[in-house]
Design the sequence.
């Protein structure tokens, strides 16, 4: 009986609790750099423990070597972000975006709003930009290959840790861009730091192997059922639910799907780690979900 009560608590309360807790902990420590890795790692540990004890799909439980491998990819992803992507953006991209705002006199950010409202606004605006970038990756084969997005879709068993399994090219060229635009072109500033943590938390939940409620929170935020459907091996199903953290844009622009997902991945079999890394250059022959349009 206690197990059933706890599972219901996870189903109905976990996603809103983690989103609220993420914002509160960031708001209380927003000037402390340690809050970012602590929250990223802490939420992964919580979700990993819950997935092990209450998996939605038992067949998706990762064995220990595979879990260690994905954890290493997760760590490498965020180390690359800290020591490569952020410095490159600071040196080359950020000045360009800042100059765009200055040159057109774009000073519309509601800086007088309470920080909670600013963070939510930054969250949904960055997800609006990501929605169209992500949709473009699935529309044009050249962008799919250039960004290495197929690597993220290659895994057959999903869990929260898969949210960090992205190709370095995508991390550099696509994933970091929405927040940079909102921060520097729209002038959101500090609010983007809080919204980025909300995006990460929502993305972790969206990949999780748990049973989560979709009835209320799923109108605005992406629930894992939605995003798992986007990871479907069926081409038509993978071209839905492009909002990794905010599903509201899919609802507005007609790409939302609430279908059941039988199998994930890009092909009937999962490529090797080396094949996944090399997908921008050479994709496995049996790939099913790659875009069919090369240029238009």
Sequence:
């Amino acid at each position: 009986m206690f197990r059933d009560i706890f599972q219901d608590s996870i189903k109905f309360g976990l996603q809103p609790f983690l989103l609220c807790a993420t914002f509160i902990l960031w708001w209380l420590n927003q000037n402390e750099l340690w809050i970012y890795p602590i929250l990223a790692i802490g939420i992964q540990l919580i979700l990993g423990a819950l997935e092990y004890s209450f998996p939605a799909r038992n067949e998706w439980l990762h064995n220990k070597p595979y879990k260690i491998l994905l954890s290493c990819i997760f760590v490498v992803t965020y180390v690359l972000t800290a020591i490569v992507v952020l410095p490159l953006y600071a040196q080359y991209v950020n000045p360009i975006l800042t100059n765009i705002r200055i040159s057109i006199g774009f000073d519309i950010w509601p800086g007088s709003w309470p920080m909670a409202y600013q963070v939510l606004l930054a969250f949904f605006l960055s997800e609006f930009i990501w929605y169209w970038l992500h949709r473009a990756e699935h529309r044009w084969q050249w962008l799919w290959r250039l960004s290495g997005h197929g690597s993220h879709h290659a895994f057959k068993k999903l869990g929260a840790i898969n949210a960090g399994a992205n190709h370095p090219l995508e991390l550099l060229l696509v994933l970091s861009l929405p927040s940079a635009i909102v921060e520097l072109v729209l002038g959101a500033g500090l609010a983007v730091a809080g919204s980025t943590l909300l995006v990460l938390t929502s993305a972790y939940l969206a990949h999780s192997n748990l049973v989560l409620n979709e009835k209320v929170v799923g109108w605005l935020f992406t629930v894992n059922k939605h995003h798992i459907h986007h990871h479907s091996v069926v081409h038509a199903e993978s071209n839905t639910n492009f909002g990794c953290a905010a599903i509201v844009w899919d609802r507005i622009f007609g790409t939302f799907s609430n279908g059941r997902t039988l199998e994930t991945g890009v092909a009937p079999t999962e490529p090797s780690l080396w094949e996944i890394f090399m997908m921008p250059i050479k994709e496995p022959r049996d790939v099913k979900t790659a875009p069919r349009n090369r240029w238009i």
